[in-house]
Amino acid sequence: MNISNKILNLNWDLIHAQLLKNGYYLHQQILSTDECQQFKEYYHKDELYRSTIVMERYQFGKGIYRYFKYPLPDTIQMLREVVYTQLFNTANEWSKRTKYDYCYPDTLKKFLADNSIGMQTKSTPLILKYKQGDYTCLHQDIASSNFFPYQIVFGLDQQGVDYEGGHFILVQQRPRMQSIPHVITIPKGGFIIFSSNYHAELGNKGFYRTVFKHGVSEVTQGDRMTLGILFHDYQVENSLL
Asked: How many whole angstroms separate alpha carbon 216 and alpha carbon 170?
């Protein structure tokens, strides 16, 4: 079964419910070993990228990530489009709950057309590589006035086999309360969908916003690679990203 069909055959009702309840959803495996290897091999093809970021240089952490340039590789373009079509309804429910004044259209093409009006035209899908001692500080991948509330990261290596440490960290910051940490292992071929900015938490007086930030704990041994797909583009004026 090709990747597109595997994505479409997921239980999206469950994913929708988990995202709206918890702000993230973890799936154990969907990519084959060969598919993971294909994405890993992209890392070494310089012609695919518009920018390479050495995190230590900007105090983002340690490690390297590379932004794909347009046109995206066919498989990544397909993943971005197919996942978007499954998430836009979830995004619109999120928009209603958070009072975010935007109705997400039913296709990625339409959404990116709206992005371009605000000079958001810099591609955002990226591949990340960590070696021993590398990590990523807590952050958000926004850099856009019109953003999509969820993003997805695919694991391309197996913790305990290819690397040790390197947990995916989500921190949920709640107003006037302590923050909640989530320490997550993304399995090889699996993925996590998570809130890119804030999550609508249900309280006694209705929904309120909690801020999500994400990062990666130190890789203590081996190499760890992931594929990240954001659905909004970055603003042109952001020269760093």
From this structure: 9
Domain ranges for the chain: 3-230
The alpha-helical segments, DSSP class H, found in the chain are 3-8, 12-22, 33-42, 74-98, 108-117
pLDDT band at 118 (very low <50, low <70, confident <90, very high): confident
User: What does each C-alpha distance from 133 to 38, 136, 137, 231 come to in angstroms?
Assistant: 25, 10, 13, 30
229 contacts 125 by C-beta, under 8 angstroms: yes
Q: What was the pLDDT predicted at 117?
A: 85
**Phi, then psi, of 130 in degrees rounded to 5:** -125, 135
Segment 19-51, tens digit of pLDDT: 999 999 999 999 999 999 999 999 999 999 999
> Cα-atom radius of gyration of the chain, to the nearest Å?
17
Measured CA to CA, the distance from residue 172 to residue 179 in angstroms comes to: 5
Average pLDDT over residues 84-91: 98
Environment class of 229 (CB within 10 Å of its CB; exposed 0-12, middle 13-18, buried 19+): buried
d(CA 18, CA 14): 6
The strand order across the sheet containing 224-229 reads 24-27, 191-195, 150-155, 224-229, 126-130, 64-68, 49-54
Q: Whole-model pTM? A: 0.96
- Class at the top of the CATH hierarchy for domain 3-230: mainly beta
Torsion from C-alpha of 197, 141, 230, 17, nearest 10 degrees: -20
